[in-house]
Design a protein that fits this description.
- The complex is a heterodimer.
- Chain A is built from 13 helices and no strands.
- By secondary structure, chain A is mainly alpha-helical.
- The longest helix of chain A is centred in the N-terminal third of the chain and has 35 residues.
- In chain B, helix 5 links the parallel strand 7 and strand 8.
- Chain B has two domains: 221 residues, P-loop containing nucleotide triphosphate hydrolases (Rossmann fold, 3-Layer(aba) Sandwich); 89 residues, Nucleic acid-binding proteins (OB fold (Dihydrolipoamide Acetyltransferase, E2P), Beta Barrel), CATH 2.40.50.140.
- In chain B, the strands form four sheets. A six-stranded mixed sheet of chain B has the order 6-7-8-3-9-10, sandwiched between helices. In chain B, strands 13-17-14-15-16 form a five-stranded antiparallel sheet, with no helix packed on it. In chain B, strands 2-1-4-5 form a four-stranded antiparallel sheet, with helices on one face.
- By secondary structure, chain B is of the alpha+beta class.
- Classes of the chains: A mainly alpha, B alpha+beta.
- Chains A and B meet through helix 8 and helix 9 of A and strand 6, helix 2 and helix 4 of B.
Chain lengths: 279, 336
């Protein structure tokens, strides 16, 4: 009896918590979007109000499109993010497979070493990374960013994926071996499809910090040719005057591609869960 | 076309010996079953034969050819796994044909072999389905079909029935027996279920903690167990073991008598006792007695009997069927 009565209350409380969290998380996004469509006075006078006929203005977007090469910045950000994710997933999954599948001396130690990167921020090594990139002649190239982001994403990817790969049935892999599949085909054709949900999770975790990063683009690739969106938006922030219309518009635009990527991965996530694997 | 010789196979994981020197000869066309409790090394032994595990030392010969260093796919074997291990993204037909495709067999040949196997296992209506759309029994048949299609020298079964429910298990057991008669292939089968072992095998290999306890036909193991372990493992309910001193028998240390070789009477007999519990199975009645001489005794009677707990009864063993074991738990030569 009490269970039946408390159940709706519990559900309501859970929903309340989730809804309030959603509101908190969405509020900055909402503020950015709303204010990007207002004129400068309205942004400061009534930051919370929706754009009305008197306050509506596209001046921010016009500035963004007129000044600088924003399309180029978007392209740079996309290239860096997508290539980095691809490399993180490929190498992360391969390392995870080796760690979870093969017994060799130092397996656990190597796994710990690879997971260490989760705890130590890569930014601590910025100076060394910069020196290395200068020596390799990679400064002001997208390659330098891709290399750094791949390194940054790998530890978490290996950690999550190796846990998931342990759950893939040994019998399945052995059946593949008896049928004459090479270790590579076992990895690509049997194991990867089964850990697809985990791959999608890793992709989302990897993607967002890369897309949002300001630090490494500023240090490694500040040139006009290689600017990313976050770095591009900085040019509207000055020491004395900040063009808020332009900043907010640039940021609003920057949300779009990452949303598209997120939708793609999260669909994979759901499909992976519902596909039904062994047994 | 499919014999197997194992010579002093050893396998160690770190310092832990899993297999302690296994010697075994399997003749062409034999159905051999490895049976033993969990952790006795029977699955590991099967995997070493398949080439999925390396041996620490010893030699494996399939059809007279040493197979050390030869990958599983080239050993001429096929394996059926406990969890079916079907490829989830392939149809039934492709699941069965993948091994041949990898070996570079012509498509027409693959199609005929798949058709033959699916006919044998009545899988024809399901060829275009994926494993997720099949029931457990159907999946196990596909797994068996995948093995048949390869036309191997050696079939290896790793507890193929343990994921099926009881009714399906009996049915699939019959199918495997029929398959063996029909293909006349050499089959090696691992199970912990002694009923499967007794019903299917030409030859049973009883393993215990990495060593072979006894090899023999089902009836040899039942009638002449070589030691206490085999005597206790084969047969259900388990054999009764009685310390020989309680019966003033000096020829052995332990005496064994199977529950079905004891008769009960309400009036007279060798051992007087009290009924503790009765299990009525219809065809059998299993009576548990606490006797003055032997302690707890299990008796299996055929048909229905009206014994109740606390009844006083007399048990009489069939003297011809007594098993004698010495202080090393080995069987003493019968009737010296």
């Amino acid at each position: 009896m009490s269970k039946a009565r408390s159940a709706p209350l519990r559900t309501a409380l859970i929903h309340l918590a989730l809804i309030s969290y959603t509101l908190v998380a969405l509020f900055p996004v909402f503020l950015t979007l709303v204010n990007s469509f207002k004129n400068r006075n309205a942004i400061f006078r009534e930051p919370m109000s929706l754009p009305g006929p008197s306050t509506f203005s596209l001046i921010g977007y016009e500035t963004v499109i007129a000044q600088g090469d924003f399309l180029g910045y978007f392209q740079n950000s996309l290239i860096v993010t997508v290539v980095s994710i691809a490399l993180v997933l490929l190498f992360g999954a391969m390392a995870a497979f080796a760690l979870s599948e093969y017994r060799f001396r130092g397996n656990t130690l190597l796994g710990l070493y690879l997971a260490l990167g989760i705890m130590i921020p890569i930014r601590l090594g910025t100076v060394a990374i910069l020196q290395g990139m200068v020596a390799a002649g990679l400064v002001n190239t997208l390659t330098s960013l891709i290399l750094v982001y791949t390194a940054q994403g790998l530890p978490l990817a290996i950690f999550i994926l190796s846990e998931f790969m342990r759950t893939v049935s040994d019998d399945l892999k052995n059946a593949g071996r008896i049928d004459g599949l090479s270790e590579y085909s076992i990895f690509f054709r049997l194991v990867l499809p089964l850990v697809r949900p985990a791959m999608a999770t890793v992709a989302v975790f990897t993607m967002i910090p890369i897309w949002n990063d300001l630090w490494f683009p500023l240090i490694l690739a500040p040139g006009e040719e290689t600017k990313t969106v976050t770095l591009g938006a900085q040019m509207f922030i000055g020491q004395f005057v900040t063009n808020w219309n332009a900043v907010l518009s640039a940021l609003s635009l920057a949300i779009l591609p990452v949303m598209v990527l997120y939708v793609i991965f999260s669909r994979q996530l759901i499909r992976g869960i519902t596909s039904g694997a062994v047994k | 076309m499919g014999s197997l010789q194992l010579k002093s196979i050893r396998k160690a994981f770190g310092t832990h010996d899993v297999l302690k020197g296994i010697d075994l000869d399997v003749q062409d066309g034999e159905f051999v079953i490895f049976v033993g409790p969990s952790g006795c090394g029977k699955s590991t032994l099967l995997r070493t034969i398949a080439g999925l595990e390396d041996v620490s030392s010893g030699s494996i010969r399939i059809d007279g050819q040493e197979v050390a260093g030869i990958p599983p796919a080239k050993r001429g074997i096929a394996m059926v796994f406990q969890s079916y291990a079907l490829y989830p993204h392939l149809t039934v037909k492709d699941n069965m044909g993948l091994g041949l495709k990898q070996a570079g067999t012509e498509k027409a040949e693959i199609d005929t072999r798949v058709a033959k196997a699916s006919g044998m296992l009545s899988l024809d209506p399901y060829l275009a389905r994926r494993p997720a759309e099949l029931s457990g029994g159907q999946r196990q048949r596909v797994a068996i079909g995948r093995a048949i299609v390869r036309e191997p020298k050696l079939f290896l079964f790793d507890e193929p029935l343990s994921n099926l429910d009881a009714a399906l298990r009996v049915q699939t057991r019959l199918e495997i027996a029929a398959l063996h008669r029909r293909l006349k292939a050499t089959m090696i089968y691992v199970t912990h279920d002694q009923v499967e072992a007794m019903t299917l095998a030409d030859k049973i290999v009883v393993l215990n903690s990495g060593a072979i306890e006894q090899v023999g036909s089902p009836m040899e193991l039942y009638n002449k167990p070589a030691n206490i372990f085999v005597a206790g493992f084969i047969g259900s309910p388990q054999m009764n073991f009685i310390p020989a001193e309680k019966l003033d028998d000096t020829s052995a240390k332990t005496l064994g008598i199977r529950p079905e070789h004891i008769s009960l009477s309400r009036d007279s007999g060798d051992w007087k006792g009290k009924v503790v519990h009765v299990e009525h199975l219809g065809a059998d009645t299993i009576v548990y007695l606490e006797t003055e001489v032997t302690g707890l005794l299990t008796v299996r009677l055929f048909g229905e009997h009206a014994y109740k707990p606390d009844d006083v009864v007399f048990a009489t063993p069939d003297r011809e069927r007594l098993h004698r074991f010495d202080s090393d738990d080995r069987a003493v030569a019968v009737h010296p």
